[in-house]
Structure formats: C-alpha cells, structure tokens
Amino acid sequence: MTASHPKLYLNLYWHMHQPDYRDIISGEYVLPWTYLHAIKDYTDMAYHLENNPAARVSFNFVPVLLDQLEDYADQFDSGHIRDPLLALLAKEDMTSLTLDERCLILESCFKGHHEKMLAPFEHYQCLYTMYTKLENRGKRMFNYLSGQYMADLIVWYHLAWTGESVRRSHPEVQALMNKASQFTLEDRQSLFNLIASLIRNLIPRYRTLEAEGRIEISSTPHHHPILPLLLDFRSTRDAMPYAPLPHYLQYPGGRQRARAHIEEAQASHQQRFGKLPNGMWPAEGAVSHEALTLLAEHGVQWAATGEGVLANSLYKSFDASELAPRHEYLYKPYRITSGQDDIICFFRDDHLSDKIGFEYSNQHADNAVADFIGSLERIHEQNSNGKSPIVSVILDGENAWEYYPYNGYYFLSQLYQALSDHPNIVMAMPSELAQQCRQPDSGLPLGDLPAVAAGSWVYGSFSTWIGSTDKNRGWDLLCAAKEAFDRVMQQGTLSEAEKEAATRQLAICEGSDWFWWFGDYNSALSVSSFDQLFRRNLANLYSLLKRETPKNLTQAISSGTTDSTVANVGTMRRGQAADSST
Length: 582
Known about the structure:
The chain is an alpha/beta fold. Helix content is 49%, strand content 8%.
C-alpha cells in the first residue's frame, strides 16, 4: 500500500425480505416463500459466514420476515401447521388427497428455476414430464396421478429448495436424494423434521455471528413501506417530473404511519438481537430528504440507497450541469443534515451489485470471482485522493441464488475467500465505516449532501411502485381503505384487541411489495398471485373494521406479461437499465 493508494473498503450488504404471506383472519399462509427461502437461502448465507471466519459482511433482516420465521417455529412446536403446502408434506395418507389438495401440490411444486432447480434431478424431471401430459386437459385429469406420485413430487420440491449447505451436511437429505422415488411417510416426516430444525435455528445462528463480530444486522421499517411515498406522493416527481400520480396526492396520516413502522422495527430488533439497530435499509432503498431526516430523528445512524439517487442528489444539491467522473463521487458515504440531526448514507455500486444479481450466475465461479475482484482492483488503482475508497455492494440476499449452479455455493465460497485474502481489500461493516468516517484523521472519505433527490435503488426513481395506471390504482384503493380505518378509529367502536388487529392489517397493506408486482415486467402468474393477495389484504382490513368491502376489490388491478423470457421472474430488478454505460 502506498500513500496514494490506501486500501479499499468493501461494504457487502445482503438484504433479506419476504412480505407477510399470512391471511390474518384465517391465520393460514397463502404462499410458501418464507419457509422455502429459509431452508435454501437463509441457511446457506449463514453457512458461508460460519465457514469463513475472516469474512465480514452485513445482513438486513426486515422485521416482517422475522415475524414469519418465528411463527413457523411456533407452528412446529405446537404441531398446528397453518401453511397448507408444508402441512401436506407430512400428511399421513397421500391416497386420500382432495382435488384441491392435488391442485395445490401440482400448482406449487414445479415453481422454481427449472434449469438449475429441476432439470439436474432426473426423477424430478420425470415427474414434471408426466405432469405436462395432463396439465392442459383439465383439473379432473389430476386424479389419474397416484398418491405415490404426489408424495414423490412434494418431497422432490422440498429437496430442490434445500440449500447446498444442507445437502452437504445432512445425511437424511443425501439419503432421500439417493433413494429418488417411492418416498414413504417416514421419509416425508424426516424431511419435515429437518425443515423444522433449520427454521428454529436460523435467527440464533445470525445472532451468534453478530455477537462474534463477524456480521452486522440492520433493519427496515417494520412492514417494508416506501417511506417517501407515505410522506408525500409528490416526491415521485423529483426523478419523474411528469409522472401521473394517484387521485390522492397524500397518503392519509402518512407521517404518523411512517413513524409507527420505524418504531416497531426498532422494538422488534431490540427484542430479537438485544439492541437497537444502528442502521436501516429503507424499504427498496427508497429515500427522500424528509424520510432520511425522520430516520435520523429516531436515532438511526446510517442508511443506504442506490447510485441513481446519489447522481440525482448531486445535480440537485450543486445545480450541476454534469457530474465528475463516477469514481470520484461514488465511492464514499455522504452526510445528510437537517437541523440538529444528521445521518450517514451509503450508495450502492449498481454495476457490481447487478453483476452478482444478474450476470455471474451464467459464469463459472472462478471467472465470476476474478471479474468481481478485478473490478475492485481497478477502483483501487483509480483512486488518487489519498483516502480509502468505500465500495458498497448491496443487493437481494435470497432470490439470486436459484439462478446459480448449486445455489451459488461455489461462487460465494470462493468470493469470500478471495476477498478475505486480498492484500488491498478490507471487508467492513457499515456501522464501523460510518463511525470512522466521522473522524477527520481516519483516512476514510465522507461527503456532505445538502439536498436529497427522492428515489429508490431501482433507476433512482419510484417508477417500480407508482406512476402507472395499475400502480396508482393500487395506491388509491389503499388510501380509501386508510380513510375508512381513520373514521372507525375516531368513532371508537372497536375493542383494543380489534384496533390492534386492524392496525396490523393496515401495516401489511402498506408494504411495498404489492406495488412492485403490478406491471408488465413481471410474469402474469406472479402478478395474479400478488394482486389477489393485496386485494385480499384490503378486504380483510375492511372486515376487521366491520365495514362492507367495496365491490371494486373484486376487480384485478394488474395483469402482467405472458412473455416467458422475463428476467428472473420478477423477483429482482437491476439498479440501472441493462444497457447502462459501465
């Protein structure tokens, strides 16, 4: 290391999130994605850190995800399973399945990336081939598929959704994969019990990693709402000046609701990890000056968002006609000040983050890791200001891996090892970086950002959540429900328990995910699932308020696309358009 080339600091930050898939009235799970990602991605991500003691990364756990993980653990402890698909895995008699149960298994158990999660397994592929012969002949034809077929299919689906670390370390999984077919009740119960053990141990594993100083865990406002939009829909126009907005220009009581989500997240983190979170990833990296100020008022020390927000904010702050070269402004955090409060904000390197999310899955692990390390080395060599560049790589920590061979096992193992061994790269966590940046003699850079242009990590705008006909309609439906909520609360006709249930249901409806899925960049099947669940959540809110459900909630909001080539089935988006200049 020379004076002009101090070491590079890498802030590698994985975001873990699933919306609330429970029907609050019935208590049943409508979709199984929380427990499936738990046994595949959350287990594997912990494993890689446990097996590389020198690696240092950060995880963001959204409280509503943790709520569901704890709820699944409680279900296993009580023996009352409220997830229909999971319950069928342990059903004693598979020959007595109802037609609805058969349809649930068949409609669920081929969901996943076929190339990486189905095709590698000969017997699973055979089950799929048999299914394709019947799928277009009507549901009644499914009765020709035997109970043994259903048993084998549901086992293979769960085997395909186990993490690579689970397959390598649990003999019962290896035995089932070797057996391949004719799975018995005992086989299914063995897999069911393993799933229970994996989920029970998840939060304790991450808690231990943080206690050992190997990871940092941050939070997000509790039910993952878009804070700037709760505060003011018009903030959309910072990045999209001509975007059409919902009929409602303000979310009713949005500031109060934003505060509630932040405070509930802090209470959740305190309960689960024994302390308040130092930082927060605002849902979808969605920030505005007002939203960041609100976080700072609650004692949040740092936040993070996308590169596009930084570029727009620099234009806004300094009235610039053009920006300096990218490497001169991107690789440092910025301080945002309002009155007596300030907060440090990190900005993701969109190119490097998107390479992990979208490109490296198609490369051999050796080549992908070499490319990532080479990119960091070029940033290191470009640096000439005498301070260490801080590179923030921030992305979804769960959805990318099904597109990688072996759930990203070789890529992540080699990446952590290469980063840990590199003489000029320091893996660091946001809180330590934020603290050191505030010290003038630390050798770490810190900029000041007078104004923040509202936007998210996707394209630096809110286009994924507002501004189109279907998304705006979703907001209008939510605003109308919030007005009904406010009226009932003012009337005082509900008991305390009823108020609590209605408030929780409102929070679920305020999550960002519903609006994410509206749009023709997502598959029609996925859009339909989330569209129905959003309207079901709104209907449940009216029911809990003891008010008649509006008839317009029976009408679909969005339809999606039938294009089978849609990238990554809507679960992820790039920070910048795929053809953005690098």
